[in-house]
Specification:
The protein is α/β, with parallel strands linked by helices. It folds into 2 domains: 85 residues, Leucine Dehydrogenase, chain A, domain 1 (Rossmann fold, 3-Layer(aba) Sandwich); 124 residues, NAD(P)-binding Rossmann-like Domain (Rossmann fold). 42% of the residues lie in helices and 15% in strands. The strands form 3 sheets. A 6-stranded parallel β-sheet has the order 1-11-8-7-5-6, sandwiched between helices. Strands 3-2-4 form a 3-stranded parallel β-sheet, sandwiched between helices. The protein has a two-stranded antiparallel ribbon with strand order 9-10. The chain is globular, with a radius of gyration of 19 Å. Bound molecules: NADP nicotinamide-adenine-dinucleotide phosphate. NADP nicotinamide-adenine-dinucleotide phosphate binds next to α10. Pathway: One-carbon metabolism; tetrahydrofolate interconversion. GO terms for molecular function: methenyltetrahydrofolate cyclohydrolase activity; methylenetetrahydrofolate dehydrogenase (NADP+) activity. This is Bifunctional protein FolD. Pfam families: THF_DHG_CYH, THF_DHG_CYH_C.
Length: 287
């Protein structure tokens, strides 16, 4: 068997084309979705993520405002900036790029963002809404993963989903979203014993660990759908996922590549959430 590749890059492209049309329609009614991004410090990875998000906004017709501050900013100053953005009428989404310097509490920052502008979907109110199946801003990476699975009309209901990794931004919420879609969900993590027993029984295997070649063909059930969330740099400086692509491709029915898989979908769902926020604010589709 050779797996069919689910290209996040292609799916993201077509979704962004649709969004471009939507922002053009909104503009006719005087609405321009606006995203504010705060970047603290000079971390190269964060800088490149923020740049990619801004470029994607521009291409999609979303106003993006960037506030790049130095690490000398105090927690209080940063929280004040967020409070001002909470009040700004033209801003529908607020994103504070993580990680933050040690002297700033990520928890406080996330909880200061107005839940109605929390387009990253990290605020406990949005997490609670998601868990209880209410309308919410869904966290972008898990949301993108579900969209990728659905794009291939893969049946989720009643399927055994195994999620390897239980972080608050990927593992936990992606399992929850798939549970909402009526999957039976198992989580594996660093304390899981005999992990291969679980991964080999997965109809849909989601891997979000952050280690190159963590999952190989031998860990995968014949015909499983495999979603590789990992982003690692190998010794040659090349981007790789958590899944050994060559051996996984022989076992899986569907497989996502790295790069060009989950990554482009994450940014796309951020754009989606920002547009949705603008629409909700103007009661264009009820909250
Ligand atoms: P994280 O917070 O470091 O979480 C890693 C998870 O992997 C933890 O739950 C950890 O278990 C588990 N783990 C570590 N070693 C393990 C082992 N030996 N066996 C089983 N489980 C193990 O990472 P994250 O933020 O979720 O990100 C995971 C990967 O996805 C990273 O490579 C990251 O760069 C990538 N990522 C990609 C995107 C994208 O848009 N493409 C977005 C976000 C993240 P414990 O909880 O027990 O420690």
């Amino acid at each position: 068997m050779s797996a069919e590749i689910i290209s996040g890059k292609e799916l993201a492209k077509s979704k962004r084309e649709e969004m471009k049309k939507e922002t053009a329609r909104l503009k006719e009614s005087g609405i321009v979705p606006g995203l504010a991004v705060i970047l603290v410090g000079e971390d190269p990875a964060s800088q490149s993520y923020v740049k990619a998000k801004q470029k994607a906004c521009e291409e999609t017709g979303i106003l993006s405002e960037m506030d790049h501050v130095t690490t000398s900013i105090s927690e209080e100053e940063l929280l004040t900036k967020i409070e001002n953005l909470n009040k700004a009428d033209h801003i529908h989404g607020i994103l504070v790029q993580l990680p933050l310097p040690d002297h700033i509490s990520e928890k406080k920052v996330i909880e200061t963002i107005d839940p109605e502008k929390d387009v990253d979907g990290f605020h406990p109110i949005n997490i609670g809404r998601m868990m209880t199946g209410q309308q919410a801003f869904l966290p972008c990476t898990p949301f993108g993963i579900v969209e990728m699975i659905k794009s291939k009309n893969i049946d989720i209901q009643g399927k055994h989903v195994v999620v390897v990794g239980r972080s608050n931004i990927v593992g936990k919420p992606v399992g929850q979203l798939l549970l909402n879609e009526h999957a039976t969900v198992t989580y594996c993590h660093s304390r899981t014993k005999n992990m291969q027993e679980y991964t080999r029984s997965a109809d849909i295997l989601i891997v979000a660990v952050g280690r190159e070649h963590f999952i190989a063909g031998d860990d995968i059930k014949e015909g499983a759908v495999v979603i590789d969330v990992g982003v690692n740099r190998n010794k040659e400086g090349k981007l790789t996922g958590d899944v050994d692509f060559a051996s996984a491709e022989q076992k899986a029915s569907y497989l996502t590549p790295v790069p060009g898989g989950v990554g482009p979908m994450t940014i796309t769902m951020l754009l989606h959430n920002t547009i949705l926020s603008a629409k909700w604010k103007h009661n264009l589709n009820g909250f």
